[in-house]
Specification:
Layout: H1 4-23, H2 26-42, H3 44-55, H4 59-83, E1 88-90, E2 98-100, E3 107-111, H5 119-130, E4 134-138, H6 144-156, E5 164-166
Parallel strand pairs: 3-4, 4-5
Antiparallel strand pairs: 1-2
Helix pairs in contact: 2-4, 3-4, 4-5
């Protein structure tokens, strides 16, 4: 269970990491999500087992949970390549150049429920991270081990320290 001081440290670490992470750009950030999706697939049996043991999923539901998490990672990576790779041209007067450049906004909290502990937390985290934000993941207090494994896999995929943070605690 995280103390108030640990929460404060996480928020500061996330703020510090976010600015540099946003500068990576959408194409580079998408590569991290693709690597994470590959790792999820490589460790799928372990993830199935965690979903069954910790969240009480049936075998079929555990498979679907992991598949959905992988789908989120791949979908948001694809969207980052489409929307964050280069400026988006906007209509303007003749001779005028108008561009929309999308950037992260800061630190987001991703709070997941117990009943979809991997897929929902992965989806919320992937959406925020790939758009240049840092994330503090707060899993249900009933499923912290699944969230810890998610954190491990994101770190193994190479996300810089502070971009994703795991906060455990009650309620």
């Amino acid at each position: 269970m995280a103390s108030a001081a640990e929460v404060d440290r996480m928020v500061h670490a996330a703020h510090a990491a976010q600015v540099e992470w946003d500068q990576f750009g959408g194409l580079e950030r998408a590569k991290y999500l693709d690597r994470a999706a590959d790792l999820f697939e490589q460790h799928r049996e372990e993830l199935f087992s965690l979903c069954i043991r910790e969240a009480g999923k049936t075998s079929v539901d555990a498979v679907l949970e992991v598949r959905e998490a992988v789908d989120f990672l791949r979908f948001y990576a694809s969207e980052a390549r489409r929307q964050f790779a280069k400026p988006i041209s906007l209509p303007g007067r003749t001779g005028e150049l108008n561009e929309l450049r999308l950037h992260g906004r800061g630190v987001f909290a991703a709070i997941s429920p117990w009943n979809f502990p991997l897929a929902i937390l992965t989806g919320m985290t992937a959406a925020a991270v790939v758009t240049g934000n840092a994330v503090i993941m707060k899993p249900s207090d009933q499923t912290p081990i699944i969230a810890a494994r998610l954190m491990d896999l994101l770190m193994e995929a190479g996300l810089p320290a502070g971009v994703v943070n795991l906060l455990t605690g009650p309620g």
